[in-house]
User: Which sequence fits this backbone?
Protein backbone atom coordinates (compact mmCIF):
# COMPACT_ATOMS: atom_id res chain seq x y z
CA UNK A 1 0.00 0.00 0.00
CA UNK A 2 2.79 2.39 0.89
CA UNK A 3 4.64 1.39 -2.25
CA UNK A 4 1.61 2.17 -4.40
CA UNK A 5 1.12 5.57 -2.77
CA UNK A 6 4.77 6.48 -3.20
CA UNK A 7 4.69 5.49 -6.89
CA UNK A 8 1.71 7.82 -7.43
CA UNK A 9 3.52 10.66 -5.71
CA UNK A 10 6.65 10.11 -7.79
CA UNK A 11 4.61 9.91 -11.01
CA UNK A 12 3.36 13.50 -10.68
CA UNK A 13 6.78 15.16 -11.02
CA UNK A 14 7.59 12.78 -13.86
CA UNK A 15 4.47 13.83 -15.80
CA UNK A 16 5.30 17.45 -15.10
CA UNK A 17 8.76 17.00 -16.56
CA UNK A 18 7.37 15.28 -19.67
CA UNK A 19 4.83 18.06 -20.21
CA UNK A 20 7.47 20.77 -19.80
CA UNK A 21 9.76 19.03 -22.24
CA UNK A 22 7.37 19.92 -25.04
CA UNK A 23 6.30 18.08 -28.13
CA UNK A 24 8.22 17.62 -31.39
CA UNK A 25 5.81 20.06 -33.00
CA UNK A 26 6.61 22.82 -30.51
CA UNK A 27 10.35 22.23 -30.84
CA UNK A 28 10.05 22.39 -34.63
CA UNK A 29 8.14 25.68 -34.39
CA UNK A 30 10.80 27.04 -32.05
CA UNK A 31 13.49 26.06 -34.53
CA UNK A 32 11.63 27.70 -37.43
CA UNK A 33 11.24 30.92 -35.43
CA UNK A 34 14.97 30.97 -34.72
CA UNK A 35 15.71 30.47 -38.40
CA UNK A 36 13.42 33.38 -39.31
CA UNK A 37 15.09 35.63 -36.76
CA UNK A 38 18.52 34.74 -38.13
CA UNK A 39 17.31 35.34 -41.70
CA UNK A 40 16.10 38.83 -40.69
CA UNK A 41 19.01 39.76 -38.44
CA UNK A 42 21.84 38.83 -40.82
CA UNK A 43 20.97 41.30 -43.65
CA UNK A 44 20.31 44.06 -41.10
CA UNK A 45 23.70 43.47 -39.49
CA UNK A 46 25.43 43.60 -42.88
CA UNK A 47 23.65 46.87 -43.76
CA UNK A 48 24.67 48.44 -40.45
CA UNK A 49 28.26 47.35 -41.00
CA UNK A 50 28.19 48.83 -44.51
CA UNK A 51 26.73 52.09 -43.18
CA UNK A 52 29.43 52.31 -40.51
CA UNK A 53 32.19 51.81 -43.07
CA UNK A 54 30.68 54.52 -45.26
CA UNK A 55 30.33 57.02 -42.41
CA UNK A 56 33.92 56.37 -41.31
CA UNK A 57 35.15 56.81 -44.93
CA UNK A 58 36.70 53.37 -44.77
CA UNK A 59 35.32 52.67 -48.26
CA UNK A 60 35.06 54.84 -51.35
CA UNK A 61 31.51 56.19 -51.15
CA UNK A 62 31.64 57.18 -54.83
CA UNK A 63 31.42 53.49 -55.75
CA UNK A 64 29.94 52.09 -52.51
CA UNK A 65 27.47 54.69 -51.21
CA UNK A 66 26.13 53.96 -47.70
CA UNK A 67 22.68 52.43 -47.35
CA UNK A 68 21.28 55.74 -46.06
CA UNK A 69 22.15 57.46 -49.38
CA UNK A 70 20.66 54.57 -51.35
CA UNK A 71 17.49 54.75 -49.22
CA UNK A 72 17.17 58.46 -50.01
CA UNK A 73 17.48 57.80 -53.73
CA UNK A 74 15.01 54.94 -53.41
CA UNK A 75 12.48 57.33 -51.85
CA UNK A 76 13.01 59.92 -54.57
CA UNK A 77 12.53 57.39 -57.37
CA UNK A 78 9.48 55.87 -55.68
CA UNK A 79 7.65 59.08 -54.69
CA UNK A 80 9.01 62.25 -56.29
CA UNK A 81 9.46 61.06 -59.89
CA UNK A 82 7.00 61.14 -62.77
CA UNK A 83 5.18 57.84 -63.26
CA UNK A 84 6.91 56.67 -66.46
CA UNK A 85 10.32 57.09 -64.82
CA UNK A 86 9.39 56.08 -61.29
CA UNK A 87 10.57 52.92 -59.55
CA UNK A 88 7.07 51.39 -59.11
CA UNK A 89 6.47 51.66 -62.87
CA UNK A 90 9.80 49.96 -63.64
CA UNK A 91 9.07 47.20 -61.13
CA UNK A 92 5.58 46.53 -62.48
CA UNK A 93 6.87 46.49 -66.05
CA UNK A 94 9.65 44.04 -65.21
CA UNK A 95 7.37 41.80 -63.12
CA UNK A 96 4.82 41.55 -65.93
CA UNK A 97 7.54 40.51 -68.37
CA UNK A 98 9.06 38.02 -65.94
CA UNK A 99 5.72 36.43 -65.04
CA UNK A 100 4.60 36.04 -68.67
CA UNK A 101 7.93 34.54 -69.71
CA UNK A 102 7.96 32.29 -66.64
CA UNK A 103 4.51 30.86 -67.37
CA UNK A 104 5.32 30.40 -71.08
CA UNK A 105 8.42 28.40 -70.15
CA UNK A 106 7.26 26.55 -67.03
CA UNK A 107 4.02 25.02 -68.36
CA UNK A 108 5.52 23.20 -71.39
CA UNK A 109 8.57 22.26 -69.32
CA UNK A 110 6.30 20.74 -66.68
CA UNK A 111 4.20 18.84 -69.21
CA UNK A 112 7.12 17.48 -71.21
CA UNK A 113 9.02 16.65 -68.01
CA UNK A 114 6.17 14.45 -66.76
CA UNK A 115 6.02 12.62 -70.10
CA UNK A 116 9.79 12.13 -70.13
CA UNK A 117 9.72 10.74 -66.61
CA UNK A 118 6.91 8.28 -67.37
CA UNK A 119 7.82 7.17 -70.91
CA UNK A 120 11.42 5.93 -71.33
CA UNK A 121 11.24 6.15 -75.13
CA UNK A 122 10.38 9.84 -74.99
CA UNK A 123 13.15 10.42 -72.47
CA UNK A 124 15.64 8.64 -74.72
CA UNK A 125 14.60 10.78 -77.69
CA UNK A 126 14.51 14.18 -75.95
CA UNK A 127 17.39 13.89 -73.50
CA UNK A 128 20.22 14.21 -76.08
CA UNK A 129 18.58 17.34 -77.51
CA UNK A 130 18.27 18.86 -74.06
CA UNK A 131 21.86 17.94 -73.28
CA UNK A 132 23.03 19.71 -76.43
CA UNK A 133 20.95 22.90 -76.12
CA UNK A 134 20.89 23.44 -72.36
CA UNK A 135 24.61 24.33 -71.93
CA UNK A 136 24.37 27.10 -74.55
CA UNK A 137 24.33 30.46 -72.70
CA UNK A 138 20.89 31.95 -73.19
CA UNK A 139 22.40 35.43 -73.43
CA UNK A 140 24.36 34.24 -76.49
CA UNK A 141 21.16 33.50 -78.40
CA UNK A 142 19.54 36.83 -77.46
CA UNK A 143 20.55 38.43 -80.81
CA UNK A 144 18.93 35.53 -82.66
CA UNK A 145 15.80 35.87 -80.52
CA UNK A 146 15.68 39.59 -81.30
CA UNK A 147 15.97 38.86 -85.03
CA UNK A 148 13.04 36.46 -84.83
CA UNK A 149 10.74 38.30 -82.41
CA UNK A 150 11.96 41.88 -82.82
CA UNK A 151 13.03 44.22 -80.03
CA UNK A 152 9.58 44.45 -78.45
CA UNK A 153 8.02 42.46 -75.64
CA UNK A 154 8.06 39.19 -77.59
CA UNK A 155 11.84 38.81 -77.51
CA UNK A 156 11.93 39.35 -73.74
CA UNK A 157 9.19 36.80 -73.14
CA UNK A 158 10.92 34.31 -75.44
CA UNK A 159 14.39 34.52 -73.86
CA UNK A 160 12.91 34.17 -70.36
CA UNK A 161 10.69 31.26 -71.44
CA UNK A 162 13.65 29.40 -72.96
CA UNK A 163 15.72 29.72 -69.78
CA UNK A 164 12.84 28.67 -67.52
CA UNK A 165 11.80 25.78 -69.77
CA UNK A 166 15.03 23.82 -69.37
CA UNK A 167 15.20 24.30 -65.59
CA UNK A 168 11.64 23.07 -65.04
CA UNK A 169 11.96 20.29 -67.64
CA UNK A 170 15.09 18.78 -66.08
CA UNK A 171 13.76 19.02 -62.52
CA UNK A 172 10.35 17.55 -63.41
CA UNK A 173 11.67 14.65 -65.47
CA UNK A 174 14.18 13.78 -62.75
CA UNK A 175 11.53 13.91 -60.03
CA UNK A 176 9.05 11.76 -61.95
CA UNK A 177 11.71 9.22 -62.99
CA UNK A 178 12.81 8.82 -59.35
CA UNK A 179 9.31 8.03 -58.03
CA UNK A 180 9.18 4.60 -56.39
CA UNK A 181 7.94 2.23 -59.10
CA UNK A 182 5.58 0.51 -56.68
CA UNK A 183 3.24 3.51 -56.81
CA UNK A 184 3.07 3.34 -60.58
CA UNK A 185 2.48 -0.41 -60.40
CA UNK A 186 -0.42 0.13 -57.99
CA UNK A 187 -1.94 2.61 -60.42
CA UNK A 188 -1.65 0.13 -63.26
CA UNK A 189 -3.15 -2.67 -61.13
CA UNK A 190 -6.16 -0.47 -60.44
CA UNK A 191 -6.34 0.28 -64.19
CA UNK A 192 -5.80 4.00 -63.72
CA UNK A 193 -5.86 6.04 -66.90
CA UNK A 194 -2.77 7.88 -68.09
CA UNK A 195 -4.27 11.18 -66.98
CA UNK A 196 -4.94 9.75 -63.52
CA UNK A 197 -1.38 8.45 -63.30
CA UNK A 198 -0.02 11.88 -64.26
CA UNK A 199 -2.18 13.94 -61.90
CA UNK A 200 -2.53 11.59 -58.91
CA UNK A 201 0.83 9.78 -58.86
CA UNK A 202 3.50 11.43 -61.00
CA UNK A 203 2.92 15.09 -60.16
CA UNK A 204 2.38 14.70 -56.38
CA UNK A 205 5.36 12.36 -56.11
CA UNK A 206 7.66 14.74 -57.98
CA UNK A 207 6.43 17.99 -56.38
CA UNK A 208 9.49 18.52 -54.13
CA UNK A 209 11.82 18.35 -57.14
CA UNK A 210 9.40 20.39 -59.26
CA UNK A 211 9.43 23.19 -56.70
CA UNK A 212 13.22 23.18 -56.77
CA UNK A 213 13.08 23.56 -60.55
CA UNK A 214 10.52 26.37 -60.29
CA UNK A 215 12.77 28.26 -57.89
CA UNK A 216 15.72 27.88 -60.21
CA UNK A 217 13.56 28.85 -63.16
CA UNK A 218 12.35 32.03 -61.48
CA UNK A 219 15.92 33.00 -60.61
CA UNK A 220 16.92 32.46 -64.24
CA UNK A 221 13.89 34.52 -65.31
CA UNK A 222 15.08 37.51 -63.27
CA UNK A 223 18.63 37.18 -64.60
CA UNK A 224 17.56 37.03 -68.24
CA UNK A 225 14.98 39.77 -67.71
CA UNK A 226 17.58 42.26 -66.54
CA UNK A 227 19.90 41.31 -69.39
CA UNK A 228 17.19 41.69 -72.03
CA UNK A 229 16.09 45.04 -70.61
CA UNK A 230 19.65 46.31 -70.68
CA UNK A 231 20.01 45.44 -74.36
CA UNK A 232 16.67 46.44 -75.88
CA UNK A 233 14.26 48.31 -73.66
CA UNK A 234 13.28 51.77 -72.53
CA UNK A 235 11.67 50.62 -69.28
CA UNK A 236 12.15 48.08 -66.51
CA UNK A 237 14.68 47.49 -63.76
CA UNK A 238 17.39 46.44 -66.20
CA UNK A 239 16.90 49.65 -68.14
CA UNK A 240 17.09 51.60 -64.86
CA UNK A 241 20.44 49.99 -64.00
CA UNK A 242 21.84 50.53 -67.51
CA UNK A 243 20.74 54.17 -67.60
CA UNK A 244 22.32 54.72 -64.18
CA UNK A 245 25.61 53.30 -65.47
CA UNK A 246 25.51 55.56 -68.53
CA UNK A 247 24.90 58.68 -66.43
CA UNK A 248 27.15 57.57 -63.53
CA UNK A 249 24.19 57.76 -61.13
CA UNK A 250 25.63 55.18 -58.74
CA UNK A 251 22.82 55.44 -56.19
CA UNK A 252 20.24 54.73 -58.91
CA UNK A 253 22.23 51.68 -59.93
CA UNK A 254 22.22 50.35 -56.37
CA UNK A 255 18.48 50.99 -56.12
CA UNK A 256 17.97 48.73 -59.14
CA UNK A 257 20.22 46.04 -57.70
CA UNK A 258 18.52 46.15 -54.30
CA UNK A 259 15.11 45.99 -55.97
CA UNK A 260 16.06 42.86 -57.89
CA UNK A 261 17.41 41.30 -54.68
CA UNK A 262 14.20 42.16 -52.82
CA UNK A 263 12.05 40.67 -55.58
CA UNK A 264 14.10 37.49 -55.49
CA UNK A 265 13.81 37.19 -51.72
CA UNK A 266 10.05 37.83 -51.66
CA UNK A 267 9.42 35.40 -54.50
CA UNK A 268 11.40 32.66 -52.74
CA UNK A 269 9.32 33.23 -49.60
CA UNK A 270 6.19 32.82 -51.72
CA UNK A 271 7.56 29.59 -53.18
CA UNK A 272 8.30 28.32 -49.66
CA UNK A 273 4.77 29.18 -48.50
CA UNK A 274 3.23 27.44 -51.52
CA UNK A 275 5.43 24.39 -50.96
CA UNK A 276 4.42 24.15 -47.29
CA UNK A 277 0.77 24.34 -48.29
CA UNK A 278 0.98 21.82 -51.12
CA UNK A 279 3.42 19.44 -49.38
CA UNK A 280 2.21 19.21 -45.76
CA UNK A 281 3.73 15.74 -45.47
CA UNK A 282 7.23 16.92 -46.30
CA UNK A 283 9.46 16.84 -43.23
CA UNK A 284 11.66 19.88 -42.78
CA UNK A 285 14.90 19.56 -40.85
Assistant:
Amino acid sequence: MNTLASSKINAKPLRHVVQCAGTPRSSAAYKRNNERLIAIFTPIALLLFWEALGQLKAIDVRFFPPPSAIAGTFYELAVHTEWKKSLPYQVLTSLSRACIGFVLGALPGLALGVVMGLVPMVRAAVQPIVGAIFPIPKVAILPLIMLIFGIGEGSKWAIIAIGVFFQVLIATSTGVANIDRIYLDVGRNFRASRAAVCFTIALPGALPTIFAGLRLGWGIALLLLVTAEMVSSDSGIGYLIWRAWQTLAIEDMYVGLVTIAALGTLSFWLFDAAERRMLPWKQRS
